[in-house]
Design goal:
The protein has 92 residues and is α+β, with helices and mostly antiparallel strands. Helices cover 24% and strands 43% of the residues. The longest helix is centred in the first third of the chain and has 11 residues.
């Protein structure tokens, strides 16, 4: 299996709709590590590390997000796996 890292910026109605909590839950289901946080400009930023197919599945999920979100755009940068995280957290 091949591990990768993905750095995402998610735009739209993605704050105040449990996007971070649901992202954490979905990442944990896929055994991914990393973090997610709200940005002051209304976007959500996230970093996922893990098996390539699990990271790709998470990226796909981020294009729709939880039920009450409206995702307008997802910017994705695939990076080299670093293995720097031991779990998936919500940053404040």
């Amino acid at each position: 299996m091949f591990k990768i890292r993905a750095h995402l910026y998610i735009e739209g109605r993605v704050q105040g709709v449990f996007f971070r909590a649901c992202t954490q839950e979905e990442a944990q289901k896929r055994a991914l590590t990393g973090w997610v946080k709200n940005l002051y400009d209304g976007r959500v930023e996230a970093v996922f590390e893990g098996e390539e197919q699990d990271v790709q599945s998470m990226i796909k999920w981020c294009h729709s997000g939880p039920a009450h979100s409206v995702v307008a755009e997802v910017s994705v940068e695939i990076e080299e796996y670093e293995g720097e995280y031991c779990d998936f957290s919500v940053k404040f």
